[in-house]
């Protein structure tokens, strides 16, 4: 069934929270994990990301006072993803 969806080019959308964990989930869906990234059909490189992004905070003048502070674990998670070569500059 999944291969049939892949062959039909069914659009895939990613909706996650606008935080480090949400970013990590979206990146894994779009680019695959280190364990599965090399297998055809294990990721959705054409997935479309929906929802609030960090860039939207400035664009829509959303006060950062309403956001939770990032933890050390959040910083480490994002830092690890920013060095990945597969992630486009726009998504970093």
From TrEMBL:
GO terms for MF: DNA binding; DNA topoisomerase type II (double strand cut, ATP-hydrolyzing) activity
InterPro entries reported in the protein's UniProt record: Spo11/TopoVI_A, Spo11/TopoVI_A_sf, TOPRIM_Topo6A/Spo11
Domain of life from the UniProt record: Eukaryota
Region forming the signal peptide: none
Residue span(s) of domain Topoisomerase 6 subunit A/Spo11 TOPRIM: 6-82
Biological process annotations from GO: meiotic DNA double-strand break formation; meiotic DNA double-strand break processing; reciprocal meiotic recombination
GO cellular component entries: nuclear chromosome
This protein's name: Endodeoxyribonuclease
């Amino acid at each position: 069934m999944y291969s049939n969806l892949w062959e039909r080019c069914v659009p895939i959308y990613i909706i996650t929270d606008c935080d480090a964990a949400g970013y990590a989930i979206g990146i894994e869906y779009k680019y695959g994990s280190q364990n599965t990234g090399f297998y055809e059909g294990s990721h959705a490189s054409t997935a479309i990301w929906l929802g609030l992004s960090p860039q939207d905070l400035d664009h829509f003048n959303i006060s950062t006072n309403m956001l939770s502070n990032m933890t050390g674990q959040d910083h480490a998670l994002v830092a690890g993803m920013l060095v990945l070569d597969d992630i486009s500059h726009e998504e970093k």
